[in-house]
Specification:
376 residues, 5-stranded mixed beta barrel, 3-stranded mixed sheet
Length: 376
């Protein structure tokens, strides 16, 4: 499993975002290791972790990493200190800050301390050898040989925090770093921190859908990982979407009678809550016909401010709103392919993420695959 995952992450088959592959690995118990400048190679590799094969995330996954920079980092391994890394690997300041933020330099201190250290090294100049006046003191971490960054990204920070007094990054900040720097949630699922909300509103985990009866009404939530609007013989449009929650994937279909209510939200929200009807197809296949959709990021903010009652009120009011008709307009590409009429309502893939540090770090990037006819 680890070898297969490393290969898929390296060659990126493209149907699903890489974070979906990482989530599947976590569900199968495959350890995922954050990049580490003393251990990572350019590509993703497998490595034994407590007797199990895991995947060490490659340096090429780091946003903004050039081939020359990753080559210098690997050629210079191992490094004895952050100063040693700065002088011999010669990373740009933005790259060094990303590596520090995501935990790739954690063998040398805490993430917050290292971010300050990189700024000091940049101001001092590469030739100062880390001895410039005013430079922050570093804890003596000793040799880095054998140091390991785990997927949680917290090992190696506690001792340095005790020296500097800087607080360790919390789980939300670490997740934000992973999403921004790696484009994947490695340590835990993006929705793990919001399980209480999903439980309070009665959302069904993807892993439990198989046990429900045909025709059951369900609420499902997740990160949008795919949208498709393929042409069909009738000339009507069906929006297909896939959501990823901490337990697995759920497949959705939105037919034209739901588009006035759902299409804009489905196309342009990175996190979704959907109400629909479970449709079973023998022997084991099933999907959900969507009838209502909400931007889950907005509901998370609402839950934080007003609790379950505020969210329940929002859901009730939204479902009582009269449905709008699908606009009688089309967007036709030069090859004759007609886009979905709701596909242009705002820049594609822009998540509404106010108050969610992990999503705020994305700067408009999304986690889903979109076929022609889909926003994005």
């Amino acid at each position: 499993m680890a070898a297969l995952l490393a290969g898929l992450l390296t060659h990126d088959p493209g149907m699903y975002h890489k974070r979906v592959l990482a989530a599947d690995a976590r569900r199968h118990g495959v350890p995922l290791l954050l990049p580490a400048v003393n251990r990572s190679q350019v590509a993703h590799i497998i490595e034994l972790v407590s007797g199990k094969w895991g995947v060490q995330i490659g340096l090429a996954q780091v946003r903004g990493m050039t081939e020359a920079e990753s080559g210098r980092i690997v050629a210079g391994q191992p490094y004895a200190s952050v100063e040693d890394f700065w002088q011999r690997a010669r990373p740009s300041r933005p790259l060094a800050e990303r590596l520090a933020w995501v935990g790739a330099l954690s063998a040398f201190g805490s993430r917050r301390e290292l971010l300050l250290k990189v700024a000091e090294l940049h101001r001092s100049g590469r030739g100062a050898g880390g001895s410039a006046a005013g430079q922050l003191p570093m804890a003596d971490t000793g040799s880095t040989e054998g140091a390991r960054d785990t997927c949680s990204g917290t090992e190696g920070e506690s001792a340095a925090d005790a020296v500097t007094g800087l607080p360790a990054m919390d789980a939300s900040e670490q997740l934000a770093a992973e999403l921004d720097v790696l484009g994947m949630d490695i340590s835990h699922h993006l929705l793990d921190e919001h399980r209480s909300l999903l439980a309070d509103i009665g959302a069904t985990p993807a892993a439990d859908l198989a046990g429900l009866r045909h025709g059951s009404t369900v609420l499902v939530a997740g990160v949008k990982v795919a949208t498709q609007t393929p042409p069909i013989r009738s000339g009507k449009r069906v929006i297909f979407a896939t959501l990823d929650d901490p337990t697995g994937l759920s497949d959705l279909a939105f037919f034209e009678d739901s588009h006035g209510r759902c299409a804009h939200t489905v196309f342009h929200s990175g996190l979704l809550l959907v109400r629909g009807t479970l449709a079973r197809r023998p022997p084991r296949a099933f999907s959900i016909t969507g009838t209502a959709a909400w931007n889950l990021a907005e509901l998370i903010d609402l839950y934080r401010e007003g609790g379950p009652a505020a969210v329940a009120d929002r859901l009730t009011r939204a479902e009582s709103t009269p449905r709008r008709a699908v606009p009688r307009r089309t967007f036709t590409q030069p090859n004759g392919y007609a886009l979905h009429p709701w596909a242009d309502l705002q820049p594609p893939g822009t998540p509404a993420s106010a108050g969610l540090p992990a999503l705020d770090a994305l700067d408009g990037r999304s986690f889903h695959h979109a076929s022609p006819g889909s926003a994005g």
